[in-house]
Amino acid sequence: MSDFLRELEEDIQEEKILNLWHKYGNYLIGLALAIIIATAGYTLWRYFHHKGQLRAHASFSSAVKLYNDGKKEEALKAFQGIAQGKGGYAKLARLYEATLTFNPSEIYNEMARRNVSDPAFGNLPKVLLAAREFDNRAALEAIQPLTAPNNAWASLSYELLGFANLKKGDEIAAAKNFIAILKEPYASDSERMRASLMLTQIEVPDAMFEQEERKSK
Q1: Nearest CA-CA partner of 196 in 207, 186, 209
Q2: What's the rounded Cα separation, in Å, for the pair 29 and 26?
Q3: pLDDT tens-digit readout, 74-122
């Protein structure tokens, strides 16, 4: 009797399973397929993304080699091709492209506009343009905000402004720029050393140094 009941119970359970399968089987198959497709898609995306990164790195390295070998025209074409893409290599290629053009200001200004939210690629073009064009008033004004306290570009911006003032013959203004570097907490040792060397070459009244020293106390 117990065997009969057990078999009956198994038949009932099997029938329930069959009924459930007939009712929800298509959904379960669809869900399983969706999981498989999603997993396969993610795996393929990672593969092609990694492959794309390797390809971009190889292309960029080849372009840099052309640049270092002095093949400027070939390097320019290579960097222009890479710059048409996306990502970090495209931005770096754009910077190299600027160094190979007769007038890089257009590229630097475009990069600064397109990367406003990026503190690196948004401000680096401004610094590079100012370094090339000390007579460009707009370029110097563009780096003035970068001298804000605790800004990563402050020391380099002060240095460029100092050289620009020296070129104009304003040693007092230049000295103030170089002194600001010495007071900048994030200035590197090389930046401090260069600023100190420049101050030894500038004829600045002792009163100005005393005034700066009183401000720092």
Answers
A1: 209
A2: 5
A3: 988 988 888 887 777 788 888 888 888 888 888 888 888 887 777 777 7
Taken in order 47, 52, 55, 57, is the CA torsion positive or negative? negative
CB 175, CB 211: distance < 8 Å = no
Quote the crossing angle between the two packed helices 154-168 and 171-183, to the nearest 10°: 170
Cα gap 215→83, rounded to integer Å: 47
The answer to whether 153 and 127 have CB atoms below 8 angstroms apart is yes
Nearest-angstrom CA–CA distance, 180 and 209: 11
Residue 18 φ then ψ, to 5°: -65, -40
Q: CA-CA distance, 73 to 59, in Å (whole number)?
A: 16
pLDDT, one tens digit per residue, over 30-81 is 555 555 445 544 454 465 455 656 777 788 888 888 888 888 889 889 888 8
The upper half-sphere exposure of residue 193, i.e. CA atoms within 13 Å in the direction of its Cβ, equals 3
